[in-house]
Write a structure and sequence with these properties.
single chain, five-stranded parallel beta sheet
């Protein structure tokens, strides 16, 4: 799990601020939030960090982070939340309604203030249909009954859950309007931009975290790390985690071997200066910034 320092950077500060606003909002009606981001952008680390921030010395959690694992049914969806809190399901053969009311009691008894549900796209099939409608209605039930803010995290496809056009209650009122009215505008966790100060500060953070002796003023090295990670927090952490500090003190060689272990793209290793020249690295950076629409 990452230290809180990395979330002081501009790329995360606005997202953390929005989560805090949702968490601490006043009033009886609690609005929820959707956070989207591509794989490796740091969503899970952010959710875990926020949960840890609201875990006291007695291990009481006022915020619950749940990484969903392809819920097979509405009951399984709720059961995964209950299990993440650390409580067993009461009945051997529980009903969805029974599990939902158990979740409500647990939230009230433990003074849980907010849920963070990650990998929500795992709940939705590729195409809209009965399964998608069922999972969306499950989410509506959780939000309605538990009456606490809920943060949904996932890939950009997660926004479908409040855009489904067939969630009607049959009484002339579209259910998707009811659901979307409970959410603030979605926010996105973007890739880091090589062209701003956040990038250098991020590399300095991981240098300290992994006790590496690298020069964060080495622009060529930072450029190559950017190309290797595509500016994704999760990928940067993986790249630094597999650096073998006992192998050599040459940073280019250190990251070359780490990239060989971590890479799944089969692209040219950016830490090989012979096959990946500086002009190629600069073109790749410009392409990535344009591809991800980074400002």
């Amino acid at each position: 799990m990452m230290s809180s320092h990395i979330y002081c950077h501009a790329s995360f500060k606005s997202i953390v601020g929005r989560i805090s606003e949702v968490h601490k909002q006043a009033g009886d009606r609690k609005y929820s939030l959707i956070i989207t981001g591509l794989s490796g952008s740091g969503k899970s680390s952010l959710g875990e960090w926020y949960e840890a921030k609201y875990t006291d010395d007695d291990k009481h959690k006022s915020v619950i982070y749940v990484e969903l694992c392809q819920p097979s049914s509405s009951l399984n969806f709720v059961a995964q939340i209950i299990e993440a809190i650390g409580v067993p399901i009461l009945n051997r053969r529980p009903s969805f309604s029974g599990a939902l009311h158990q979740l409500k009691r647990i939230i009230q008894e433990r003074n849980i203030e907010m849920l963070i549900l990650d990998e929500v796209q795992e709940c939705l099939p590729d195409k809209d249909g009965i399964k998608a409608q069922q999972m969306a209605k499950t989410l509506v039930s959780i939000i309605n009954l538990c009456a606490i803010p809920t943060v949904l995290m996932g890939t950009p496809s997660v926004t479908r859950i409040i855009e489904l056009d067939y969630l009607s209650d049959g009484q002339g009122l579209a259910r998707e309007e009811q659901l979307s009215s409970r959410f603030l505008a979605p926010v996105s966790l973007n890739h880091l931009n090589r062209r701003n100060q956040d990038w250098q500060e991020t590399i300095a953070f991981f240098k300290s975290k992994h006790s590496l002796r690298i020069d964060v003023e080495n622009e060529d090295l930072l450029d190559r790390i950017y190309v290797a990670s595509q500016g994704k927090i999760g990928f940067i952490d993986r790249l630094f985690s597999f650096v073998d500090k006992n192998q050599t003190e040459n940073p280019m060689e250190l990251f070359f071997e780490s990239y060989q272990i971590c890479d799944t793209t089969k692209e040219v290793n950016p830490f090989n200066p012979r096959s990946c020249r500086k002009d190629f690295v600069q073109r790749r950076i410009s392409k990535l910034i344009k591809q991800y629409d980074l400002r």
